[in-house]
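Please, structure for the following, as tokens.
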Amino acid sequence: MNIKQRRAVVVITVLGCLFISILVFLDKRTTYTANLDQRTFNLALVGTIDSLEPALLDSHPEKLLAAAIYEGLVYYDDESKSIKPLLVSDWKYSSDGKSLTLNLKRKISFHNGKRIEAADVKRAWENSFSTTKEWSNISLFLSIQGSQERLDGKSAEISGIQVINPGTIKMQFEQPNAAFIFMLTNPVFWVYDTQDKVEPAPGSGPYKIKEIRDKQQYLLERNEKYHRGMPALGGIKAQVYAAGSEALAAYQAGGVDYLDSLPLNQLNAFKENPQYKKLLITKPLYNIYFLGFNVNREPFAGNYLLRRALNYGVDKDLIIDEVMGGSYRAANSIIPLGMAGYQHDMTGYSYDPEKAQELLEEAGFPLGEGLPPLLLTYNQDPGHQMVVESIVAQLAELGIKVKLQPLEWNYYKKQMDEMNLVFFRLEWKADYPDPDSLLYSMFHSSKVGMGNYFNYHNSQVDKILDASREEVISQQERIKLLNRAEQIIIDDAPALLLFQSSAAVLAGQNTAKIKLDGMQMIDWYEVELLKPAMEKDAEGSKEQEKV
């Protein structure tokens, strides 16, 4: 055998071995992929699930699970801070901002196979409006013409929701509402088939209900005809735990791919634990925790200096470190970190006891003299109690006396709705991912008693917020208007801003593409389970958001 022949034999042998190796690798990959396709994703939820109907969703576990089953016309893209089409192909506001027309994508079906048309959207929305028990949901509809008549029982429909043709739906507003496209991300606007008598009604999401076991375990199967493509998970098994400690134990035992709630007292330990810190996902949420002042009641009426003094007199970071386990961040603005319009250079009110004393003196209460004891009311809860007790101790150092009044939640909420509270605790969770949800809902004078629990009236703020809803051409200009309103509100100090809350969750070892947005929601279509044999190679592609 000559040299050329020997070389040829060697090359053929090497290629043959390489070919066999490739076949073995592909066979293993196929096996892993096949197993992955059959593997159910284990989701641990802490709390209760009473309903999965979009109109009746109340708790976060309910919303998170229902998000795998139902969809809205649009969705919020957390990275670009913008609205993207989902069940619609496009939309357009009229030039005066008083109408919004949306064109549905064709050939999208509910889980039962029925094609989604504009009439289905109208029926779902009107049904949700009629059956929801939350005023915050009802209020999202009230800018639509005819919604008040429907609420009062004077009409069988909401006249402003108009079916133009099977693929087009149009909203007519009482007043311009540039924020409405963001409101459509709220679960109350998710679409479902009201004509199917199955409960809960069929949606169009990437997964559909297979079985519900005593409201403790929910089995979802893959929607193989999903309009965005085949979902990556074979299914989802959601287990509901009454206590966070039980869910955490299940996670540590290796039986959970995603733990949605980590006990706050465990957070720091997991941040430092080398086994878990890479699996810990934290995300600032669009939630603001604060104390409110009724600005039309003594001693706060007409006394913005006193309200500012109280803001400067509280050390938020001290409370976060000593009481809240580091799970919150100090809030110096109303628009939270992560939301479009957040201003990094907004100073707000930092802890400055000397400034607080100066303002107290200007307000007519030097060293707190002459200021009657303040009555701070809060809904009874061990966590809230520790927060307010810390605030009481800090204000006492300024000479300000504070008495505490804990109330049971339902009675507390009633007192707040009736504007009977003068100094009170409140946490506001954005109903949709836009500054309008915090600024307009809490500080426009039309919302007094319906979100504006401060009795706050400022005609300049009203005009700016109204102008922001009229701005349908430029999102940038709309945000500028909202920022102007925010600065005026902060200067007026109708509230003592405290914290922005954060989510702290744990992904499993083989979980990939879990993305939390500022509303604490997940796009379940994107979630994957990693192939075990390729974990190390895939570590770099795991998408975990850490703040």
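The CA atoms of residues 411 and 543 lie 43 Å apart. Confidence is low (pLDDT under 50) at residues 6-34, 533-547.
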